[in-house]
Amino acid sequence: MTSAGIIQRNRRFIFSIAIIALATGLSGCATTDKTTTGSITPASGADAGPAGNFDQMNEQQLMQASTSLGARYQANPKDKTTAVNFAAVLRMTGRSDQALAVMRSLAIAYPKDRDVLAAYGKALASSGEFEAALDALRRAQTPEYPDWKLLSAQGAILDQLGKTSEARDLYRQALQINPNEASILSNMGMSYVLSGELSTAESYMRKAVGAPGSDSRVRQNLALVVGLQGRFDEAETIAKQELSPQQAQANIKYLRSMLSQQNSWSMLKDKSKPKT
């Protein structure tokens, strides 16, 4: 296999682990936000529902929120806050196609609204429509007053498209606007995970964990990076701070299993060695 093929194979492998590790978090929902390589605060304040941030809800609470917001959405599909919240909950409960339909209708009604375009971009990314998602996020951005959240979200999508250099440039721009922001540092860390540069990734993740606003997802990303380097006991200790012992153990067991397949662990070790 060519070196380019090995790198691409590594990217798919690492990203598959990132999806699983993040999917078994406190919310208990088997879905991830693809506008982030690691963890990111919502692109709009409208993503936070009446009960607080949806990311902090468990599965039952999310289903209740989905039912309530669905009824409100049916009564008034053009209400921005309701539609954006409804789409956010739909994404978090694995109904990305329905979330995209909700946001596509809202984007038609509000074609120049920045918050709507940002949420539309997230819905497009969650459905795997990355190029369209980038276009929506770019249209939501204002060059004279750039939004760091949108820059970070764009970077995460570019990372998933394999455009690492462009992604990191956007993370750096975001950090210039909001230095020491946990979600940007975490995204940068996951960018280095995706390229197999694990020691650099860990450095960014530890900065993210120590930064103001660090949340459960950021600390789970640190556990993932530590585990990818084979330090499973340490990774499990970190994971237990956020998850139940059973969930943490299941995550590490899955990680061990994935790393034992198709010589993936050897490939990662080769990629993470410093170049001489």
General description of the model:
With 276 residues, this protein is mainly α. Among the domains are: 61-137, Tetratricopeptide repeat domain (Serine Threonine Protein Phosphatase 5, Tetratricopeptide repeat), CATH 1.25.40; 180-262, Serine Threonine Protein Phosphatase 5, Tetratricopeptide repeat, CATH 1.25.40. 68% of the residues lie in helices and 1% in strands. It contains 14 helices and two strands, in the order αββααααααααααααα. The protein has a two-stranded antiparallel sheet with strand order 1-2. The protein starts with a helix and ends with a helix.
Task: Report the β-strand fraction as a percent range.
Answer: under 5%
Average pLDDT across residues? Answer: 78
Classified by CATH, the class of the domain at 180-262 is: Mainly Alpha
H/I helix tally = 14
Shape: globular
- Largest pleated sheet: 2 strands, antiparallel
N-to-C series of helices and strands: HEEHHHHHHHHHHHHH
Q: Over the alpha carbons, how many angstroms does the gyration radius reach?
A: 18 Å
Give me the CATH superfamily of the domain at 180-262. Tetratricopeptide repeat domain
CATH architecture of the domain at 180-262: Alpha Horseshoe
- As an assembly, this protein is single chain
Strand order of the largest sheet: 1-2
- What is the CATH fold-level name of the domain at 180-262? Serine Threonine Protein Phosphatase 5, Tetratricopeptide repeat
GO molecular function: mannosyltransferase activity
Keywords: Repeat, Signal, TPR repeat
Organism: Phyllobacterium brassicacearum
Protein name: Pilus assembly protein TadD
